[in-house]
Amino acid sequence: MNVPKSNLEFIDIGGVKIEHTAVLAPMASVADHAFRLICRNFGAAAVTSEMVSAKGICYGDKKSAELLAVTDTERPMAVQLFGSEPDFMAKAAIQAAARRPDIIDINCGCPVPKVTGIGAGSALMKDVELLGRIVKAVVNAVDIPVTVKIRRGWSLSSENAVEAAQAAEQNGAAAVTVHARTKEQLYSGKADLETIAKVKRAVNIPVIGNGDVDSAEAAKAMYDATGCDLIMVGRAACGRPWIFSQIKSYLTDGTVIPEPETNEQLDIMISHIELLVKDKGEYIGMKEARKHAAWYLKGKKNATEYRRMCGTLSSLGDLYGLVKRVREENP
Length: 331
Ligand SMILES: Cc1cc2nc3c(=O)[nH]c(=O)nc-3n(C[C@H](O)[C@H](O)[C@H](O)COP(=O)(O)O)c2cc1C
Known about the structure:
By secondary structure, the protein is of the alpha/beta class. It is built from 13 helices and ten strands.
């Protein structure tokens, strides 16, 4: 599948130029180096790391340090930090910046209890003053742009995306991403485009719209309805990294690129999982590949059986065997 050449403009985020198409969302346990690279190769305008614990970095946790890795082929790339204490966030940001990401992003949207329980992630939507102090501490600590990813609010009765975005801007953030759902909604209901539009009207920094973009048409609809500067795609890229190519093409000249043929999809899945195994070794790589394989095979004939088989993949040999069967049964 060819990635179209575009004539689209670039958005400037604190001096980092990002093509005016769609960026890949940060996704813990999903958006690792292999997945980010596949998405970049399909035209994702930028990528973000999985969220990394500020305390984990400060206390020398090996896994956290690994999550900070940035490779040149992924750029522009942001590293995302979560935490609730300005000092730790600043110290972690200095260590993260030493790995030379293009941007540091601050997570103010994660709804997982392990994260909100320490006052981080979406819990910061309940304390916008603290959110502002964290942004300021990180901005003062590093010399690269700092962005902030927020939600619509903690709950529908306490919607405050505009206040949170303004606090981020006033404290030096270079852009803000809005996942237009509240923490209480988790991933249910629909992302509220009006929230993104309101934030866009309220701040002067670039606004990145996020939530439910699952097609090129939905990407354009989010741009049109909100006036946002960029859009971010998460779940719809899982098992469909070519969505970035489709979005780019549609925004460039209105061309609708169809889904790749099954054979091509399977080739893409194989190169993705081979890269994952190269990065992490076969034992861990194949464990992590299981969910990706199930996403790629969703909707195929006999998908229920494939899903079960994906759950037991342990080697690249298992993968090639499964792919052979899928090709035979889905001509
Ligand atoms: C598996 C998974 C992991 C996620 N991890 C993160 C994360 O580490 N940091 C973050 O800010 N958001 C995280 N998110 C939220 C996404 O970045 C995004 O805001 C959300 O999925 C809505 O966008 P979408 O409708 O395009 O998926 C995660 C979402 C999913 C599904």
